[in-house]
Design a protein that fits this description.
This is MerR-like DNA binding protein. The chain is an alpha+beta fold. The chain has a single domain (2-60), classed as Multidrug-efflux Transporter Regulator, Chain: A, Domain 2 (Orthogonal Bundle), CATH 1.10.1660. The protein is built from three helices and four strands, in the order E-E-H-H-E-E-H. Strands 1-2-4-3 form a four-stranded antiparallel beta sheet. Helix 1 crosses helix 2. The longest helix is centred in the last third of the chain and has 12 residues, at 49-60. The chain is globular.
């Protein structure tokens, strides 16, 4: 796990996918669609754990409508 500016806790794509229970392709798709912020440098994507958790919770809770 990496520590970046302002105390953000980030993880690489592979670990983010494992934590979310999805594929790495899904994590990349979420980032490309603006649902998840990509941090890191070219060739080394990282994702904020708290942001990832919030997205997973949001996608797993059924819409009551």
């Amino acid at each position: 796990m990496s520590q970046t500016q302002r105390g953000r806790r980030t993880v690489p794509t592979q670990l983010a996918a494992m934590l979310a229970g999805v594929t790495e392709a899904t994590v990349r798709k979420w980032a490309s669609r603006g649902k998840l912020t990509r941090y890191g440098r070219p060739g080394r994507a990282e994702y904020d754990i708290e942001e990832l958790y919030a997205l997973v919770v949001e996608t797993r809770i059924p819409d009551p409508r």
